[in-house]
Design a protein that fits this description.
With about 450 residues, the protein is α/β, with parallel strands linked by helices. It folds into three domains: about 5-130, Rossmann fold (3-Layer(aba) Sandwich); about 150-375, pyruvate-formate lyase- activating enzyme (Alpha-Beta Horseshoe); about 380-445, OB fold (Dihydrolipoamide Acetyltransferase, E2P), CATH 2.40.50. It is about 35% helix and about 20% strand. It is built from 14 helices and 19 strands. The chain has helices at about 15-30, 55-65, 70-75, 85-90, 90-95, 110-120, 165-170, 180-190, 215-225, 245-250, 270-275, 280-295, 315-325, 355-375; strands spanning about 5-10, 35, 45-50, 80, 100-105, 125-130, 150-155, 155, 175, 195-200, 230-235, 260, 300-305, 330-335, 380-390, 395-400, 405-410, 425-435, 440-445. The protein has a six-stranded parallel β-sheet, with helices on both faces. Strands 15-16-17-19-18 form a five-stranded mixed β-barrel. A three-stranded parallel β-sheet has the order 7-10-11, sandwiched between helices. Strand 5 (about 100-105), helix 6 (about 110-120) and strand 6 form a beta-alpha-beta unit. The longest helix is centred in the last third of the chain and has 24 residues, at about 355-375. It is globular, with a radius of gyration of 23 Å. It starts with 5 loop residues before the first strand and ends with a strand. It binds S-adenosyl-L-homocysteine (SAH), iron/sulfur cluster and FE3-S4 cluster. FE3-S4 cluster binds near residues 17, 50, 84, 166 and 170. The site of iron/sulfur cluster has 10 residues, from helix 7.
Length: about 450
């Protein structure tokens, strides 16, 4: 059979998967393959999958099924499924999806090239998923989406076992990366021209807990910010572990983004306890007030689940109260989706679908009002914007992000090229506030 020459990676799910996809691309590019855009041109199509909610599962099945006819027209094409569904289902996926050739998990990304070769040579599908902690994948080559931005994992896995969540089951126990390794990677990135990094972990605030004597997250933040980067972001923070030291590091370090993603999940203490979140509504709101006081102008985003088993109207009213009091700049809202293997999946007291939908709609409205008023408050201000290039929808507009993670659109100056702006900071005067973006004009380079 001829050698593989081309490949394509389709990515679902969170930033951890995006980062893993950069490593998959990096490995295959260094093995001599070329990245293509259309499945019909690819000798290997790799799906990096997510199973955090049911609709993510369903989407994968649809996408893989739609490749059947393409594969029939391109004999020898290989389809690989990795990421969290690969880890969860392993070899069982090969029975379910007959035209899949390789299944691999979250702990053995480095094995993908060898697995593709073995499926091709033996003309037989292969599945390999290791257990948590068996494989280390921090030091693979990678191909970054933007040359000026990098994802830098500082922890992998999760020890929190929120009762609804599949992540600890598919990503394994929390493991922190060595402090020196993180800092030296960031120093290298700066030399390579990276200006912005996002530190990644399911709960970055618990960094170092498994490394006796290691610095904690606040020190990581300060050290990374002093490597010469222009912007340092991080995700995700767990409210039970967000420390005053971290808030102080954010407040005192200008390179750290004025933005925090702090998932609340619910405003009801009963629901939070049932979810195993280990904080109360008042603890959460106390953190929010401390953040607004210590870091004026900070933007806050959150995740909220409605329809958790047993959630009453009164519980939901508490969630609505949190939305009103916390004044979020953005919120990712979800209807509870039972995931096999998690304790919440077997709870009897389910909320009827229509009730969950009504709560969801009311929540989305409340979030929208909050976002609109937070964006309007920025009218007339000047923001540091890191441009990404021209907008996907309109090539005459540049798109970038503020330190508060808000999308900003600015007209591309006549005769200018996007490459003069991508990956660079400019000061932008904001004169338009929409729900999903801000508009403005450049006042000066930052
Ligand atoms: N480690 C991160 C991200 C977890 S997944 C964190 O703790 O915030 C992202 C979000 O998906 C979660 O915050 C939660 O709001 C949502 N989520 C996870 N499992 C879910 C489920 N079973 N049903 C609905 N939403 C879920
Ligand atoms: Fe899931 Fe909770 Fe871990 Fe986040 S902290 S990944 S919600 S178990
Ligand atoms: Fe999804 Fe896995 Fe991330 S389940 S949210 S891709 S850790």
């Amino acid at each position: 059979m001829p050698a593989m020459k081309t490949f394509l990676v389709r990515t679902f799910g969170c930033q951890m998967n995006k980062h893993d996809s950069e490593r998959v691309s990096g490995m295959l590019l260094s093995a001599g393959l070329t990245l293509v855009e259309e499945p019909a041109d690819a000798d290997a199509v790799i799906f990096m999958t997510c199973c955090v909610r049911e609709n993510a599962d369903v989407r994968l099945l649809g996408q893989v099924a739609s490749l059947k006819s393409i594969k029939a027209a391109r004999p020898g094409q290989l389809i690989a499924v990795g990421g969290c569904i690969g880890q969860r289902d392993g070899a069982a996926l090969l029975d379910e999806l007959r035209h899949v050739d390789v299944v691999f998990g979250t702990h053995n990304i480095a094995r993908l090239p060898a697995l593709l070769d073995s499926a091709r040579e033996a003309r037989r599908p292969v599945a390999e998923t290791l257990n948590a902690g068996d494989g280390s994948t921090f030091d693979l080559p990678l191909e970054r989406e933007h040359p000026w931005h990098a994802w830098v994992p500082i922890t992998v896995g999760c020890d929190n076992f929120c009762s609804y969540c599949i992540v600890p089951h598919v990503r394994g126990r929390e493991r922190s990366r060595a402090f020196e390794e993180i800092v030296s990677e960031c120093e290298r990135l700066v030399t390579d021209g990276v200006v912005s990094v996002t530190l990644l972990g399911q709960n970055v605030n618990s960094y170092g807990r498994d490394l006796y004597g290691q610095p904690r997250f606040a020190e990581v933040l300060r050290a990374v910010a002093s490597t010469g980067l222009g912007r340092v972001s991080f995700a995700t923070s767990h409210p039970k572990d967000l420390s005053d030291a971290t808030i102080a590091a954010m407040a005192e370090t200008s390179q750290v983004a004025r933005y925090l993603h702090l998932p609340v999940q619910s405003g009801s203490d009963q629901v939070l306890a049932a979810m195993n979140r280990r904080y109360t509504k008042e603890h959460y709101l106390g953190l929010v007030e401390r953040l607004y006081t210590a870091i004026p102008g900070i933007a806050l985003s959150t995740d909220i689940i409605v329809g958790y088993p047993g959630e009453t109207d009164a519980d939901f009213a508490e969630t609505m109260e949190v939305v009103a009091r916390a004044r979020f700049d953005q919120a990712f809202t979800f209807i509870f989706s039972p995931r096999a293997e998690t304790p919440a999946a077997s709870l009897p007291d389910t909320v009827p679908r229509e009730v969950a939908q009504e709560r969801f709609d009311a929540l989305v409205d409340a979030v929208q009002r909050s976002v609109v008023s937070k964006n309007a408050a920025l009218l007339g201000s000047v923001q540091d914007v890191l441009f990404e290039g021209v907008s996907k929808r309109d090539e005459t507009m540049l798109a970038g992000r503020t330190s508060g993670n808000k999308v900003v659109h600015v007209a591309l100056p006549e005769g200018a090229d996007e490459s003069e702006f991508a990956g660079r900071f400019f000061r932008v005067h904001i004169d338009e506030a929409q729900t999903w973006f801000l508009g403005g004009y450049i006042v000066s380079g930052a």
